[in-house]
């Protein structure tokens, strides 16, 4: 009986010696270990992590019946959030780019005529497609391995635009003058590299 009382007193002393800071430190260690374990599980299962450098778009859905207490009918208050993250994407947004250049003239010097700002340089002059569309076409063909006829089908499917493969091919051919100012064809460049390597 005396031994049991001594053991009880010893446990009581040990419990009372625990401070609030030690309890918080223990909780932090447990939370850190739990987060590390969750990360290891995601990596082991092949689940993709949501990159921290991407912008965040928040949505906060709330049903109307959750805003009123079912018992007393009073309005409920927000006490926190249950948060989850998923990787999302916005579809490509196509639009018509309108460039307006001011036409100016001097009322006192009419002999100088009318002048306006020069057009910015473009990859293909007088092309109905912007430089960005031309670049996307070239990148899609050579980097993403998307043939031009398939890109034409995608434009018609997603936007209802009928852009023929011949038109896309013309954009690609004319854009080569920037990458290769000499204007040589693919075969000529290959032959030139072969000659240099053999020499």
Explain how this protein is built.
The chain has 199 residues and is mainly alpha-helical. It has a domain at 124-198. The chain has 6 helices and 2 strands, in the order ααββαααα. The protein has helices at 2-16, 20-45, 131-142, 148-159, 165-179, 186-198; strands spanning 103-105, 114-116. Strands 1-2 form a two-stranded antiparallel sheet. Helix 3 (131-142) crosses helix 5 (165-179). The longest helix has 26 residues, at 20-45. Residues 12-18 and 185-199 have low confidence and may be disordered.
Q: How many helices? A: 6
- Going across the major beta sheet, what is the strand order? 1-2
Percent strand equals under 5%
Quick one: overall form?
elongated
SSE inventory with pairings:
Layout lengths: L1 H15 L3 H26 L57 E3 L8 E3 L14 H12 L5 H12 L5 H15 L6 H13 L1
Antiparallel strand pairs: 1-2
Helix pairs in contact: 3-5
Please tag this protein with its features:
mainly alpha, 199 residues, 6 helices, two-stranded antiparallel sheet
Quick take:
The chain is mainly alpha-helical. The protein has six helices and two strands; from the N terminus they run H-H-E-E-H-H-H-H.
